[in-house]
Write a structure and sequence with these properties.
By secondary structure, this protein is of the alpha+beta class. It has helices at about 5-25, 30-65, 70-95, 100-115, 120-135, 175-180, 205-220, 255-270, and strands at about 140-145, 150-155, 160-165, 170-175, 180-185, 190-200, 230-235, 240-250.
């Protein structure tokens, strides 16, 4: 059925219901109408008092849920407030003799029209609720969302705000965040540093391994449990590759990463272990001419 037909029929039903309510209201004259209006007014005040009490109870319950984001608290309270206003409207309408069923049908039609016009925003809203419910990250976490990396500053119902390492602020629509690959680098207390370094084929394997282990175990921020790892892992064209794995506190990852790179170079120089680099040998032939 066409939307315009639905809207026209809905408005017509509400109009007829309102007219019937007015007729009923004045059926017993002005005195009866005044009594009905006063009763509806008292009922309206009672509904407001009940609504206030229920919202306060809801606020207390939400404040006890410390593991739920504040944005979700606000959304739940707003939805509860809208629902209670709607119930109040229905109760008062019934008290005035207006058919609440017709009014409910009109509100449903209007809600459908609004939802179709703001479907992208509703998609972001659904994404925001998904993020707040599943909690793949929280404010302060460093994450990669798709190709974008940064520290989470705010988790809204429509957008997620993050700040990049070069201090740019980026707003990502929540529907994109839900669909993207999310890597969270902050949730775990420990993080592993993985490095691959090269050493000359002339350097004894055991000597290189011992040198690397000395670099790892001497660093104050490298954890000894799990133990550091340094082993031969591959043969290159001009050098052998050694893999280093070291665990550290999450916050110390980058300092440890760069310290190990610098420490390996210094240790190799001290122990006489060379780090070869690709070389190209060029030979020029003069075809037997002097």
């Amino acid at each position: 059925m066409d939307n315009s037909v639905i809207d026209t029929e809905g408005v017509q039903d509400v109009g007829e219901s309102v007219q019937a309510g007015i007729d009923t209201l004045f059926r017993n004259g002005w005195e009866g109408a005044v009594k009905t209006i006063l009763f509806a007014a008292v009922l309206f005040v009672v509904c407001l008092v009940v609504k206030t009490i229920l919202l306060r109870l809801l606020d207390r319950a939400l404040n006890k849920l410390t593991h739920v984001e504040k944005s979700l608290h606000t959304f739940i309270r707003s939805m509860a407030n809208i629902l209670l206003w709607f119930v109040t409207l229905m109760v008062v309408a019934e008290a005035l003799g207006i058919n609440a069923t017709s009014l409910l049908a009109l509100v449903s039609i209007l809600g459908l029209a609004v939802s179709l016009s703001v479907k992208d925003s509703l998609s972001n809203l659904a994404g925001g609720l998904t993020i707040l419910g599943t909690k793949p990250f929280k404010v302060g976490d460093y994450v990669e969302i798709g190709e974008t990396g940064g520290t989470i500053q705010e988790i809204g119902l429509v957008y997620t705000k993050l700040t990049t390492l070069d201090n740019r602020q980026i707003l990502l629509p929540n529907n994109m965040v839900v669909e993207a690959k999310v890597t969270n680098y902050t949730t775990e207390p420990l993080r592993r540093v993985d490095l691959v370094v090269s050493a000359s084929y002339d350097a004894p394997v055991e000597k290189v391994k011992a040198t690397l282990q000395q670099v790892l175990t001497s660093h104050p921020k490298v954890l000894l449990d799990p133990p550091p790892f340094a082993r031969l892992s591959g043969y290159g064209e001009s050098a052998m590759d050694y893999t280093i794995r070291a665990w550290c506190e999450n916050a110390d990852y980058w300092p440890v990463y760069h310290d190990l790179l610098e420490g390996v170079k210094e240790a190799f120089d001290r122990e006489g272990i060379s780090i070869p680099y690709p070389q190209v040998e060029v030979k020029i032939h003069n075809n037997g001419r002097p």
